[in-house]
Amino acid sequence: MDYTKAYKVRVLPNSAEPGYTPILTSPIDERELYSGDFAKVDTVHDIFIRAVNAAPSAGHLGYRPYNHKTGEYGDYVFYSYAETYERAANIGSGLIQIAQGVAEKTNGSVKSILDRKWPVAIYSINRVEWTLVDLAISAQSLYSVALYDTLGESAFEYILNHSEPHIVVCSLDKVPNLLKAADKLKYVKVIISMDPLDEQANFESPPHFQLKQNSIDVLKKWASSKNILLTDLPAVESLGKAKKILMYPPTSSDIYTILYTSGTTGNPKGVVSTHASYAASAKTCYLQRGIYENGISIVSYLPLAHCYGRNFENFTRLHKGRIGYFSGDVNRLLEDNNNMNPTCFTGVPRLLQRFYGVLSSQTVDLEGPRGDLIRRAYKEKVENMHNGKGYTHPIWDALFFNKTKRFLSKNLDLIVTGSAPLEPHVNDFLRVAFISDVMDGYGMTENAASISCQGIGDVSSGNSGIPYSHLQVRLRDVPDMQYFVTDKPHPRGEIVVKGPTLFKEYLKEPEKTTEVLSEDGWFSTGDIGRFNEDGSLTIIDRKKSIFKLSQGEYIAPEKIENVLSKNNLILQSFVHGLSTKNNLVAIIVPDPETFIPWAKKSAPSHSNSTLADLTKLDIIKAKFISEIDSFCRKSGLYGFEIPKNIHFETVPFDSETNCLLTPTFKLRRFEAIKHYKEIIDSLY
């Protein structure tokens, strides 16, 4: 590769070494992170205070009140930045007093409470109270331990014992689970319900956060029997307001949060990140993504226990933007977006692929004169877009695309996605249909969700953009997988990164920390990447999950599963092979919306059959195997990478029932191998 032609990036001179590419970084000067408007923004708390001072009356945290009489959700109601500040200050003050009281009662160390720097666990779906508590924690130099709402008992037991918080703040529905496990929770002394423990009928929470008063009284007695203080957030807030303890702001080196990685193998790792890491991440996203005339506002639904959701809220706060919380059910996500009409949407590729499927069927896939006209409009807009003329068109938008834009939000300016690139035709369609930037990004928990991202007006596809302004990125050889930085036409290898967003350590696991974080600050991601001609980065493989077939071919199952995920007949897949066999097999979860019509067309005599019945037909299985063989070859897979036999699974993988997914929807590969062992054996 000729790095002099990598016009999107800055190539550090003389940085190439044997087995490594040169170091690539952003053309944006990283000094902008620490100068000008950002000169005194060194912590996540600083980001919040900056917004409070600049826009105290602007709306910040919003929710949709629930009407118990009608069973409906109202319009979004927002707390201003000033109101958010006041509530966070009072909650933080109350938390210190609660902890101090428990320490005095149990002969604990009051000094250690007042010295701060201790953890508070948060266990809930995204909601206003989640962020109020997080802001309160930071304002007192405490740090959060974030738990996914979907965690089962064994998972939250491990995390709470591993991270040692004395206080857990949770939604009311989590209280019984915590009390049930109380004897196994070595450190938990206080449970704070985000929902009131009294007068539930008058509260604006939806039904899944409601309990009858007699049930709440039982919980209080149960907690008392376990020597656990059970109280609620309104009481903590009132306590903090009555006797104020001033904010105790953190320094940049203080811990901001501990997020637990997905744990696809063994126990999850606690990723310890500082305020410096997440402040730098938010600032560099601000610089890379640019300024939008209508500001940044979002409906928050991606878990705040994940780096992506957390970082995007900090990024929004840096823009002094509004954050409206979803109403608790992803099936109402479009309704929530249509009610708030935010400027930004964050989504995973599979969800955006579904949007594409719905909207394309209503537009470019229509038959007849209207379909012809829409296709003409679409073609012209795509050509304009790739010729640098932007996303808008006065005639075609008025006729067609303002309507498709309103599918998500009439104010939409930006869609941010990650984890896997969208197909070019899907990217083009979304940009045209939503009249919006669609930016693909790449990040990990260990670097606060920011390694690379596309910028404003970047209409390319199949890449995750360029390194953020703070970050240095390079590739290194992976001989076992036959990836080399000398590969033609583009270098390939493991992605290694360096910069201020990197995590501090894995909690209590120094050996695992040193495995991935070198003494000179380079982090080994375990992802395989390719530098493209323009300097952009494409993720092509994963290092950890490779295995060999009997004839010596190395298999990267995630790569194959990513290809299969782009087939509209497939909802989920799990690819596996045995070292004693020379071919692969796959467990396929079909997408009912597309698979059923396809199967009935393939077997007309079974037009009244259910999904379960259709998947049992030999003719359907044979045609499906032929379909994916053709699809995989067109997608560039080698013959040995294509599954030769499959099993249809009609029950989707999830994180609660069959526990085959992590809370971030990654496949628990070793659990899947155990779960499907007999079926896999039978496929051979």
TrEMBL record:
MF-aspect GO terms: ATP binding; long-chain fatty acid-CoA ligase activity
Domain AMP-dependent synthetase/ligase: 74-507
Gene3D superfamilies: N-terminal domain of ligase-like
Stored InterPro entries: AMP-binding_CS, AMP-dep_synth/lig_dom, ANL_N_sf
PROSITE patterns per UniProt: AMP_BINDING
Keywords: ATP-binding, Nucleotide-binding
GO cellular component, one term: membrane
The keyword Glycoprotein belongs to this UniProt entry's keyword annotation: no
Top-level taxon of the source organism: Eukaryota
Protein name: AMP-dependent synthetase/ligase domain-containing protein
